[in-house]
Amino acid sequence: MVKRYFVLLLSLLFAVSAFAADGKVSGRVLNAATDEPLIGANVIIDGAGIGTASDNEGNFSFEYEVSQTAYLIIGYMGFKTQKVELNPGDQTTGLVIRLAEDILETQRVVVTGLASSTSKEKSGVSVASVKAEKLTELNSYSSISQLLDGKVAGAALSSSSGNLGGGFKFDIRSGAGLNGDGQPVIYIDGVRANDVEFEGAFGKGGQMVSTMSALNPEIIESVEILKGPAAAAEYGTDGSNGVVLITTKKGKLAAGGKGYSVNYKYETGHHEQSYKYTKDDIESYKAANSVFRDGDFTKQNLLVQGGGEMARYFISLGQGTENGIMLNNKLDRKNLRINIDANASEKLNFSAGLSWVEFITERPENDNNIYGWLGNTVLRTTPFGWLDSLSIAATEEELNIKQVTGFFKSTYSPIKNLKADFTLGVDNTNTMHISYYPPWGGYLYDHGSRQLYDRQNLQFTYDGKVGYKYDILDGLVGNTKVGFNFMEQTFRSNWLQMDSLASDKIKDIEIASENQLQYFGESFVPTRKGGIYLYNYFDWQEKVMAELNIRKEYANSLSQEISTIVYPKASLAVRLDKFGLTPSMFDYFKLRTAYGETGRLPGANDIIELIWAAEPSGYGAGLTISEIGNLKLKPERVKEMTFGMDFSVWNRYNIEMTYSKVNTEDGIYGQQLAPSTGKIATSIPVNVGETKGWAFELTLDGRLVDQKNVKVDFTQTNSWQGNEVVDLGGKDEAIWSAFDTQIIQEGLPIRTFYQQDIDEITYDDNGKFAGYTLTEDYVDLGSVLPNYRGSFSLDFTLYKNFQIHSLFKWQMGSKILNYTKVYQTYFGNNADYNNAREIMAEADSTSNYGSKYKNAVEDFVKYRSMLEWGTYVGFIESADYLKLQELSVSYNASDLINKYVPYMNLNSLRLTFSAQNLLTWKDYSGPDPEVNMDGARSTSQNMDFMTLQHPRTFTFTVQVGL
Question: For all residues of the chain together, what is the average pLDDT?
Answer without folding.
Answer: 84
